[in-house]
Amino acid sequence: MLTREIGHTGIFVNAIGLGCMGLSEFYGPATDKTDAIKLLHTAIEGGVNHFDTAEMYGMGANERLLGEAFEGKRDKVVIATKWGPTRDLETGAFTGVDGSEANMRRAVENSLKFLRTDHIDLYYMHRMDQTRPIEETVGAMAKLVEEGKIRAIGLSEASAETLRRANAVHPIAALQSEYSIFSRDIEDGPLKALEDIGGSLVAYSPLGRGMLTGRYSRENKPGEMDFRSGAYSPRWAEGAFEANLALVDEITAIAAAHKVNAAQIALAWVLGRGENILTIPGTTKAANLAVNLGAAEVTLSADDIARLDTLADKVQGLRYAEAQMASINA
């Protein structure tokens, strides 16, 4: 097991954690609860101790799932959750981002209740509220640390400037952002800021939302209920999808040479970018979980890395639709 610290918090976790969003929403129908709990228990047994969720995933459903699964196992897990984005409780539509202390108080109390715990290990502002200073939001979050409700503070998809300003108020333990062979836009700003402040990167979608696993083909695409099939995912749109699959062929070729899975190459690349980088690939299947954990044993050569480093500039399509990109690097 590859163990790394989250910032300078004293919280050590397996560098390959589990992103839990897909168990409840966005990648098709929610996983059957019994099956989902079995997967979470399998993850713990396999050495996973870093589990990532958020208030908005299923509007509390994902946190409730983890709360039930981790009953009696709280000492074995590090729980990260997130707050900020708001949704219409009837339609599920996203209605904005509210970084006020009042919204934070509401959110954290719900999360503690749903997760069946008295503290959250890592609490993120999920997206930046661009209507108010980050100092105000992080100042409020710092009160939760003082009160013992959270152990560490993180931000998600924040810019380098925002990270530095936030860290001046209270240490920022982690930035959660998309980072993969195909998504490297944070390297010029946020990653450097993290080094400066001593924070960790928690890389979500390190497998490119599944594209880098080699699972998908022109004949095998995500289903209609999957958000990758809609306007939210330009890289999966007709034309871009086919072009990007051709780039995945380079990853699968390197995987074949190593006699491993393409997903393991993709994760090994991310983990090799720095000692302060952790990953939270998501899956709903125990077999995929085992593959992901095996990435810790994969070592890439300088030639492998050079070949993989050429791919990001050739990727077609933004990682989100333009409207959603407005909240990235904020």
- Main sheet makeup: 8 strands, parallel
Percent of sequence in beta strands: 15-25%
- The sequence of SSEs as H and E is EEEHEHEEEHEHEHEHEHHEHHH
Please estimate the helix content: 25-40%
How far apart, in Å, are the first and last alpha carbons? 34 Å
Estimate nothing, just give the exact number of structural domains. Answer: 1
Query: Which structural class should the secondary elements be placed in?
Result: alpha/beta
CATH class designation: Alpha Beta
What is the CATH architecture term?
Alpha-Beta Barrel
Provide the spatial order of strands within the biggest beta sheet: 3-4-5-8-9-10-11-12
Mean pLDDT: 96
Gyration radius from CA atoms, angstroms:
19 Å
CATH topology: TIM Barrel
Q: Would you mind describing this structure in some detail?
A:
The protein is an alpha/beta fold and about 325 residues long. The protein has one domain: NADP-dependent oxidoreductase domain (TIM Barrel, Alpha-Beta Barrel). The chain has eleven helices and twelve strands. It has helices at about 35-45, 60-70, 100-115, 135-145, 160-170, 190-195, 240-260, 260-270, 285-295, 300-310, 320-325, and strands at about 5, 10-15, 20, 50, 80-85, 85, 95, 120-125, 150-155, 170-180, 200-205, 275-280. The strands form three sheets. An eight-stranded parallel β-sheet has the order 3-4-5-8-9-10-11-12, with helices on one face. A two-stranded antiparallel ribbon has the order 1-2. A two-stranded antiparallel ribbon has the order 6-7. Helix 2 packs parallel to helix 3, helix 5 (about 160-170) packs parallel to helix 6 (about 190-195) and helix 7 crosses helix 8 (about 260-270). The two termini are about 35 Å apart. The model has no long low-confidence stretch (mean pLDDT about 95).
